[in-house]
Amino acid sequence: MLPKALPALTRLSIPEYAMALAHVASLRSEDPFRKVGAVAIDFDNRVIGTAYNGLAPGYNADTEFWADRDARRKYMLHAEVNLCSLFTRGNVKLVACTTKPCTSCMQMLCAYGVKEVYFGEDYPESEADAIAARYGIPLVKLTDFPQVIPASRDMS
Ligand SMILES: [Zn+2]
User: Fold this and answer.
1) Is residue 59 a contact partner of residue 30, using CB atoms and an 8 Å limit?
2) Is pLDDT above 80 for 46?
3) What is the DSSP letter of 54?
4) What is the helix (H) or strand (E) element at residue 122, kind and residue range?
């Protein structure tokens, strides 16, 4: 017999599910200034992959590297860039990113044929809204999804 005090179970929508996974992926980012996660979902609602922003795979920066927020920017691979390395054009229906894609990443998502994009935080410098509108891609802010707050910020 089931306990009576079970909380009401609600099923996440696919965009909410993708955003929750993107949030978890962002926790893996090594960038102390901005942690971004991204998730790709295919046309059968399967997760193609997760990604986060960071330095090129296998490169380990010393602590001095992280001291200059601006100097690090050109070396950071955005979560969307890492995500697009996981699939080929036309295989992804939906991408969820914890932060609105920057202009370059929105262009890349268009080039990969992504049909819908969801994001959590705004990114004011981005021209993603104009790009998405031009190509008829819904670019939707979605902030109501389950999020994990880690007890420890040790990212090792
Ligand atoms: Zn970007």
Assistant:
1) no
2) yes
3) B
4) none
Q: 79: CA distance to ligand 1 center in Å?
A: 7
Distance between Cα 128 and ligand 1 center (Å):
10
Tens of pLDDT along 77-108? 999 999 999 999 999 999 999 999 999 999 99
The alpha carbon of 2 and the centre of ligand 1 are apart by a number of angstroms equal to 47
Q: State the distance from the centre of ligand 1 to the C-alpha of 3, rounded, in angstroms.
A: 47
Question: How far is ligand 1, taken at its centre, from the CA of residue 107, in Å?
Answer: 9
- For residue 149, the model assigns a pLDDT of 81
Max CA pair span of the chain: 60
Report every protein residue that has its C-beta within 5 angstroms of ion ligand 1.
78, 102, 105
The continuous run of DSSP H or E covering 43 comes out as none
Residues 100, 122 contacting (CB under 8 angstroms): yes
**Is 25:37 a contact under the CB 8 Å cutoff?**
yes
